[in-house]
Amino acid sequence: MQPGHPNGNGKYPHGKTGLRRIFHTLIHSRDGFIATFRGEAAFRQLLLLHGALAVVAFLLDVSRSERALMLVVCFISLMVELLNSAIEAVVDRISLEHHPLSKNAKDMGSAAQTTALLMVATVWAVVLLG
């Protein structure tokens, strides 16, 4: 088996197992957060929005379950933005040329984020308005 090629079951060898693999995963995750924070204004804006919503969630007189749901949907929105940014980076890596499939991929990622934000608004409205 050559380095950089999949083995017999289609997986790429990484050579890391156990705690070492977890540690390296955390390093890559940190790098992803940093790259997204530095390169994506939308991610920074969502961090501010959801950070403010998190503070408000803890100030509101709601049940623990309602508060948890309000926070979870905010985290989901941040996860969707990370994935949307990853899609955009891959599309741009392939080519900066305008192409209908590239546009579709980016538009679909944007639609996913819009859906996530609608979910945040819906959950918060249901909790706050009863």
From TrEMBL:
<feature type="binding site">
    <location>
        <begin position="106"/>
        <end position="107"/>
    </location>
    <ligand>
        <name>ATP</name>
    </ligand>
</feature>
<keyword id="KW-1133">Transmembrane helix</keyword>
<feature type="binding site">
    <location>
        <position position="67"/>
    </location>
    <ligand>
        <name>substrate</name>
    </ligand>
</feature>
<dbReference type="GO" id="GO:0004143">
    <property type="term" value="F:ATP-dependent diacylglycerol kinase activity"/>
</dbReference>
<keyword id="KW-1003">Cell membrane</keyword>
<comment type="similarity">
    <text>Belongs to the bacterial diacylglycerol kinase family.</text>
</comment>
<feature type="binding site">
    <location>
        <begin position="97"/>
        <end position="99"/>
    </location>
    <ligand>
        <name>ATP</name>
    </ligand>
</feature>
<feature type="binding site">
    <location>
        <position position="81"/>
    </location>
    <ligand>
        <name>substrate</name>
    </ligand>
</feature>
<keyword id="KW-0418">Kinase</keyword>
<feature type="binding site">
    <location>
        <position position="88"/>
    </location>
    <ligand>
        <name>ATP</name>
    </ligand>
</feature>
<feature type="binding site">
    <location>
        <position position="40"/>
    </location>
    <ligand>
        <name>a divalent metal cation</name>
    </ligand>
</feature>
<dbReference type="Pfam" id="PF01219">
    <property type="entry name" value="DAGK_prokar"/>
</dbReference>
<keyword id="KW-0460">Magnesium</keyword>
<keyword id="KW-0808">Transferase</keyword>
<keyword id="KW-0547">Nucleotide-binding</keyword>
<keyword id="KW-0812">Transmembrane</keyword>
<feature type="binding site">
    <location>
        <position position="110"/>
    </location>
    <ligand>
        <name>substrate</name>
    </ligand>
</feature>
<feature type="binding site">
    <location>
        <position position="88"/>
    </location>
    <ligand>
        <name>a divalent metal cation</name>
    </ligand>
</feature>
<keyword id="KW-0472">Membrane</keyword>
<dbReference type="InterPro" id="IPR033718">
    <property type="entry name" value="DAGK_prok"/>
</dbReference>
<dbReference type="GO" id="GO:0046872">
    <property type="term" value="F:metal ion binding"/>
</dbReference>
<feature type="active site" description="Proton acceptor">
    <location>
        <position position="81"/>
    </location>
</feature>
<keyword id="KW-0444">Lipid biosynthesis</keyword>
<keyword id="KW-0443">Lipid metabolism</keyword>
<keyword id="KW-0594">Phospholipid biosynthesis</keyword>
<keyword id="KW-0997">Cell inner membrane</keyword>
<protein>
    <recommendedName>
        <fullName>Diacylglycerol kinase</fullName>
        <ecNumber>2.7.1.107</ecNumber>
    </recommendedName>
</protein>
<feature type="binding site">
    <location>
        <position position="40"/>
    </location>
    <ligand>
        <name>ATP</name>
    </ligand>
</feature>
<dbReference type="GO" id="GO:0006654">
    <property type="term" value="P:phosphatidic acid biosynthetic process"/>
</dbReference>
<feature type="transmembrane region" description="Helical">
    <location>
        <begin position="42"/>
        <end position="62"/>
    </location>
</feature>
<keyword id="KW-1208">Phospholipid metabolism</keyword>
<keyword id="KW-0479">Metal-binding</keyword>
<feature type="transmembrane region" description="Helical">
    <location>
        <begin position="111"/>
        <end position="129"/>
    </location>
</feature>
<feature type="transmembrane region" description="Helical">
    <location>
        <begin position="69"/>
        <end position="91"/>
    </location>
</feature>
<dbReference type="InterPro" id="IPR036945">
    <property type="entry name" value="DAGK_sf"/>
</dbReference>
<dbReference type="InterPro" id="IPR000829">
    <property type="entry name" value="DAGK"/>
</dbReference>
<dbReference type="GO" id="GO:0005524">
    <property type="term" value="F:ATP binding"/>
</dbReference>
<feature type="binding site">
    <location>
        <position position="21"/>
    </location>
    <ligand>
        <name>ATP</name>
    </ligand>
</feature>
<comment type="function">
    <text>Catalyzes the ATP-dependent phosphorylation of sn-l,2-diacylglycerol (DAG) to phosphatidic acid. Involved in the recycling of diacylglycerol produced as a by-product during membrane-derived oligosaccharide (MDO) biosynthesis.</text>
</comment>
<dbReference type="GO" id="GO:0005886">
    <property type="term" value="C:plasma membrane"/>
</dbReference>
<feature type="binding site">
    <location>
        <position position="21"/>
    </location>
    <ligand>
        <name>substrate</name>
    </ligand>
</feature>
<keyword id="KW-0067">ATP-binding</keyword>
